[in-house]
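Entry 12.
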Amino acid sequence: MNTHKSSWVVGIDVGGTFTDLIMLNADDATVRLAKVPTTMHNQAYGVVAALAAAGAILADLQVIVHGTTTTTNAILERKVAKVGLITTRGFRDSLELGRRTRPKPYGLTGSFEPLVPRELRLEVPERMDAEGEVVTPLDAAAVKAAVQELIAKGCEALVIHFLHSYINPAHERRALEIARGLWPNAYLTAGHLILSEYREYERGTTACVNAAVQPILARYIERLRSELRAKGFNNDLLVMQGNGGTVSSAIVSEHAVNTVMSGPASGVMAAAYTASAAGYKDVVTYDMGGTSTDVALIHAGVPTVSSELELEYAMPIHVPMVDVHTIGAGGGSIAFINQAGMLQVGPESAGAMPGPICYGRGGIDPTITDANLILGRLNPEKLLAVDRPVPLAKVRAIILEKIGKPLGLDATGAAAAILRIANDKMAGAMRMVSLARGHDPRDFVLFPFGGAGPLHAAALARELAIPRMLIPVRPGITNALGCVVADARHDYVNTINQPLPALDIGLVWSTLEAQIAEGRATLAREGVAIEGTRILHFADMQFQGQSHILTLGLPLLRVAKDELQRLFEAAYWERFGVELPEIRAVLVNLHTAVIGLRPRLDLAVLARAERAEDLQGARNDMRQVWFEGGFRDTPIYQREKLPQDARFTGPAIIEQLDCTTVIDPGNRVEIDALGNLLVTV
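Predicted 3D structure (tokens):
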């Protein structure tokens, strides 16, 4: 009998094209990697296939951390559960009326389909006022009748959402109690338990999203757990959340909405962990995959977290999530001439099927990947996911026909134009998370990852005057690494909504203390192995009469009123460069993040490889590669073979299994102790 406690830790990230796996053993510093096609119909099969490809013996695994797109895809594709809603009399339509914005600002076109149709939104007599005082008592008999009607109509999940429940949840609690005695399953959501925050529209929509994906996530996780159990795995299965933390699979479906956007979050967490270990605290992350690009900001070692996500029109999800800005520009983004006769790239993507022309799966539209291939930046012999390689001449001919001729360019000029347009879009996304929020990109390090990030990073760094890039050891599996290094995390938000002069500071302290207690209780209930806890406090504040909120970190729990005022004024000045001393500040919400610290990992194990003795030994080839100004003879290096003391100047192409890195002419490259490439732009 094997009594040795295993040290294998596994991170698995499910992407749109590939399911990536990383296995690390802390005892003997060994690493195993796997990249298998994602099984969209049931992601569990892809997860099990990735474990098999890595040669994992499931009984020997200490923990599996899983980043899933199950809930995000369910919402975007509207493949959700049938949800019923019970709400305050007179307010059944508030979730459809929303904020009365329009899908398209001009032309009054576009439509919106609410998650819960009108016939499944029922009203009951009850009413709280904005101070939490009872105006109309709850009619228990009406709640019982409404629950029975929704069961009869075939609803699988139920939402109870009453006005002002964030300040006094007594009616919601009583209605939930009644529903529990009648509802045939555990899929019950009370708005205040998901989000204790003012604004009934955002709170209600967030609760409805939770209910709509709860059964889907619960079924998926149960399928995955039973598949893993059958193969001998009996330890912790953790799931990534959108806030950049993990949660035990045993309780994840209770707050299913928290797993929306967990994929992008895991990449940002890996970037924060890797950059901090390398000595960099201020980072712009840049994750370019097959269909989209995600950019985010890490300031003082902490990723920016926001509660303002709108997944699509009229779908605000107001739970704390890593603040990621996404645009439709990935390797598969299609380039075309639009109706105005101008070149456009994305947002439509060729996806995994049929994919770029060069993949040989029937794709006929030029993509960013095809443009990179023509310009010599990608090796036609080493393209992942290629079924039947398409001759370079054919790719060139299609780009010339569809892009070059209408613009009066040759094939090379057309491919270069596609790259410039794509790079401009991605640089714009970086400006959105940096300059638009009062941060100077020149103060940051660019951290590119994903299958295509390092291909374009040099051009973006030059465009934004970012002086340095940090390219991780395994850019293509960074999201899977994020799963491994992420801590357990639970976030809590409560609305205060009081001007500072009238603020009861005791209420602030007691609210934060209650949030800490709830977080510690949740960590104890999920029973995941942690090495300690870290508590972060934040305040949402605004000037009275404004609607825009600024979130600022609180240095300690027992913060004083004048300190709140000072912190807010400093944050407002940094963001807008304006002082408004004559207007009163308002404390809107209080946040607490309770973080369970999981064991630290030494990233140096990722860099272990049989390195060449000198730079020449790492060189595979010379190839003609296009840079601004034309084609140049460019050395091609194998990343794993680069010697630890390698120092060289671009142009260069660095190839590895999971991605290709482009080094522009004049850029200087060195390798740090953790195996990251440090590029001075």
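Annotation: Residues 200-230 form the longest helix (31 residues). DSSP finds 16 helices and 35 strands in the chain.
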